[in-house]
Amino acid sequence: MNQPIAFASAPLGHHLMGVDIAAGVSDAQFAAIDAAFNRYGVIVLRNQRLTPEQHIAFGRRFGPTERYGIASYLLPGHPEIFVVSNIIEDGKPIGMADAGRAWHSDMCYVTNPPRCSLLYALEVPRESNGEPLGDTCFASTQAAYDALPYDMKQRIEGLKVRNSYAASVERKARLKRDRGGEFSQEERQKVHEKFPDVLHPLVRTHPVTGRKCLYVSEGLSAAIDGLERSESDELIAELLAHMMKPEFVYRHRWCEGDLVMWDNCSSIHIAISDFSPEQRRRMHRTTILNESSAVPGVFA
Ligand code: OGA
Ligand code: MN
User: Fold this and answer.
1) What sign does the dihedral 117-80-99-203 (CA atoms) show?
2) Whole-angstrom Cα distance, residue 204 to residue 160?
3) What range defines the domain where residue 76 resides?
4) Can you give the pLDDT at residue 292?
5) Residue with the nearest Cα to atom 10 of ligand 1?
6) How many CB atoms lie under 10 A from the CB of residue 182?
7) Mean pLDDT taken over the chain
8) Which of 18, 81, 203, 300 could share a disulfide with 197, CB 3.0–4.6 Å?
């Protein structure tokens, strides 16, 4: 795929030079990284060589770590690390192979979603000519909000979105059924119990910067509270289409050693699945909670 890596004007995806996390990050350097992160929503630190301990320790400077819900995808010995990978070892997947195949904000279906995620590339799939595959695209939810027409801003002010993990699982189940698989009633029930739907503001105010951000995830944002089904579906689709406009998007082309951090309020992201199972991809993700300042959502 030969698409531009980034638009010169992209409001996110800021590359920070001269940071070697393994060699140590001073408080002053950290303050600069944190400020850039809050400003741009997605930052890129290339050429890192991180052990799991160093990755976790760096993430903890941004807030407490969160454990991802699927135990079999956590790195053995380091449950703070969630493995995103298509690699099978001893007949078992070492990580989640299909993470993030729709535009989303991580864990938007819990009452207190994480502040940010840090994804570190260990193995990047490549074409035979060496060109990397499996890019990740990010969209700025704050730039997208700012660019909305005044009327739309008025219309969506104060609305609440119902985020539903169950809805996304149902979608995956339908795909599975189309391929001849089964998704039992019991599995369905378990998902609903573990992750009840939550209501969040459709326009979130960023807990650090105070900027307004659109909070919509494809397939996970199931409805806008209080609207008729058709109006709700149309509004969600319209906002998503707006957020995906090229001027709000940064496309990251991975290289081994890249650490990319994204803010789960001011950005959404999607994994591009353009590689095959034999082309190995292995990434480590830490997920960082908000200290406490964020206004949590409520169970719907
Ligand atoms: C994630 C995710 C995208 C990717 O880890 O949260 O969405 O490209 N990953 O792996
Ligand atoms: Mn994700």
Assistant:
1) negative
2) 10
3) 25-288
4) 64
5) 271
6) 8
7) 92
8) 300
CA separation, residue 264 to residues 65, 90, 107, 155, 290 (Å): 14, 34, 9, 23, 10
Number of domains in the chain: 1
Which amino acid makes up residue 87?
A: I
What's the pLDDT score for residue 168? 84
Contacts 24+ apart (CB under 8 A), 169-178: 171/219
Report DSSP state, residue 76: T
Question: Which two three-digit tokens encode residue 38?
Answer: 């809050």
pTM over 0.90: yes
- Residue 114 maps to a domain: yes
Tell me, in angstroms, the distance from the centre of ligand 2 to residue 276's CA. Answer: 20
Residues 6+ apart with CB under 8 A from 32: none
User: Which tokens is 265 given?
Assistant: 């309020």
Ligand 1 atom with the smallest distance to the CA of 135 is: 8
CATH number reported for the structural domain that contains residue 81 in this entry? 3.60.130.10
Q: Any idea what DSSP says for residue 47?
A: S
Look up residue 161 and give its amino acid: V
Least confident span in 4-13, 47-56, 72-81, 150-159: 4-13
DSSP, collapsed to helix, strand or coil, labels residue 89 as strand
Q: Is residue 9 part of a domain?
A: no
Q: What is the pLDDT of residues 169-218, one digit of tens each?
A: 887 778 777 777 777 778 778 888 888 999 999 999 999 999 999 999 99
CA 87, 93, 95, 97 torsion-angle sign:
positive
* Ligand 1 pocket: which of 84, 217, 250, 281 to mutate (most atoms within 8 A of CB): 84
